């Protein structure tokens, strides 16, 4: 079993909140983590993925919750019974204020953001997001990239010898725990099963899809994989797939609730002065799944593909999302594009509104001109701009000057290195 960096935080929040909601995509490791924590802390484990248990809970959610009595419990795949929310809230309201860790809920759809769920648990619940394995979890490294970039001490750069093929291999495999030890053919069989046995089924079950949603999803999923790392324009989706704008947007929203894709909004200074685009950027949550849908089966194919740059950007963006879940520094993620089409792939906004710009470049070489997007962001952000870095495929950490600004180029291989 892979050590999950989120586990200490999960235990900490269970000691501080009555309810903790652990959410994330199917097969990301939520059940494994929840079972481990339940054994350590003596919580009763109940999975609603079991059809008999599901039917019983659906018939009487209040009765089920009351039947737990004084027990603390894990309710796995909790999103299948939204009617449990008022029942859990009723019990939570009656708890002694000092009683914590009553429920650990897990769900592979973010039910509290869904239109189907009108109720929430304000003040009762902490929310954690468990995404597929980060690169540092895969290799057992201590690096947290958010805290590292926030500290800005680039004189000490974790060193690792990583080839272009090594980096491409990370993009191809992605982070789902079950695919890591499988052969190339075994990975493809797993991804096929994941899409057809889980994604399409869950789309129908969780969101009450009607009509010919299956063929639309089969066309939409690979289209979005090809758009990973790019601006998302719903009219393009609609035109290419012959869907109307409203339906294409709704399907993307559902896929985001299911952690298949993630939309990253455009950053603006003070939320008043706007950049040229308001369009979000689209990222596949798992690049291995995206590669599968695009028919990319080996490093040679991927490196020669027009999609490689976008998928590499998605890998780094999602690495930032994963690390942000357990980082000491609290950040939110954005992207930037001005009216001269100068772009920054990732903008990390700290709690005090200072920002860090992050560019991703597949090439092993880097030039001064590669920092023009970061320079534009610095000009746009003014005093809010703290620093800018460019991840690239080389092996050296290099300082660069652009006007009065200094930036740093950092090797992608540092993700594989020990600090």
Can you walk through the features of this model?
There is one protein chain. The chain folds into two domains: 7-129, Rossmann fold (3-Layer(aba) Sandwich); 135-416, no CATH class. Helices cover 40% and strands 18% of the residues. The chain has helices at 7-14, 30-41, 51-59, 61-67, 84-94, 135-138, 145-151, 164-173, 184-207, 213-226, 234-241, 245-257, 287-293, 299-303, 308-324, 372-381, and strands spanning 19-23, 44-47, 73-76, 103-107, 125-129, 230-231, 261-264, 281-284, 331-337, 343-350, 355-360, 385-392, 398-402, 405-411. The radius of gyration is 22 Å and the shape is globular.
| Category by helix and strand content | alpha/beta
Low-confidence stretches: none
* H-E order: HEHEHHEHEEHHHHHEHHEEHHHEEEHEEE
| Measured distance between first and last alpha carbons | 22 Å
Output mean pLDDT: 91
DSSP helix fraction: 25-40%
Based on CA atoms alone, the radius of gyration comes out at 22 Å
Total strands: the figure is 14
Strand order of the largest sheet: 9-10-11-12-14-13
Number of helix segments?
A: 16
> Which band does the percent of strand residues land in?
15-25%
Mind describing the biggest β-sheet? 6 strands, mixed
How many structural domains? 2
Silhouette: globular
Descriptive labels:
5-stranded parallel β-sheet; 419 residues; 14 strands; Rossmann fold; 16 helices; 2 domains; alpha/beta; 6-stranded mixed β-sheet
